[in-house]
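Technical annex B. To support the medicinal chemistry partners, we prepared a structural model of the target in complex with guanosine-5'-monophosphate, based solely on the information shown next.
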Amino acid sequence: MNKPGLLIVISGPSGTGKGTVCKALLDRNDFWISVSSTTRRPRVGEVNGESYYFLSKEEFLDKISENDFLEYAEVYGNYYGTPKSKVIEMIESGEDVILEIDIQGALKVKENYPNGVFIFILPPSMEELKKRITNRGTETEESLMTRFKCAYKEINYLSKYNYAVVNDEVEDAVNKIESIILAEKCRVDRIKSTILDSKEGLIHEQLYD
Ligand code: ADP
Ligand code: 5GP
């Protein structure tokens, strides 16, 4: 049996740079990122099945009733959800799995998977956050204000997470996340047993699932 992979949850307010940081993290590492489902309309350039699975509200509600989601939440008026079976399959097969989800979703995952690694991405300042959401150019004025106001409340949930990473420079943020993941893999309380191979004299570790 493979060692199970880590469940790494990257979360934080809209516009802090979660998507940007995750993309850079995946360019440098062999992690598996979960593709969520959403009822939000696709933005220019977004591809169904890559950015998200874009569903109608009815399709999304069907999936809720079929218990298909590890977690789901209503975020800024749309539903977003993480597919359950695929994420569990990947972790069990030994892949390190990244979830890029909002704070409500992260807290739900934490209830069921306290062994996950919960990382909160912070902007360098609220002024910079506003600039980033505005410059991204994807939101209406109303949606921009909703996201910005929510960010003030969402930062209060930082204490529920294991790690805080300020996304000032993308490369620094990615370096920090890589260090967190490496340290988490070395944690003694993640090791169920160490087996000494009597022939080879090698140490094998078995991780908790
Ligand atoms: P989120 O996924 O958290 O909503 P995005 O990754 O879409 O945020 O980033 C929001 C905007 O900020 C994007 O236009 C992105 O290019 C920009 N951005 C992300 N990280 C940085 C950074 N470290 N410095 C400057 N701009 C950034
Ligand atoms: P956006 O509309 O900007 O792509 O995403 C809005 C928010 O929804 C972001 O904070 C993003 O992280 C979050 N999100 C994306 N997928 C999921 C998901 O599967 N579950 C939850 N709870 N939030 C998600």
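Notes passed to the chemistry partners:
The mean pLDDT is 93.
The helical segments are 18-28, 57-65, 84-92, 103-112, 126-136, 141-154, 170-185.
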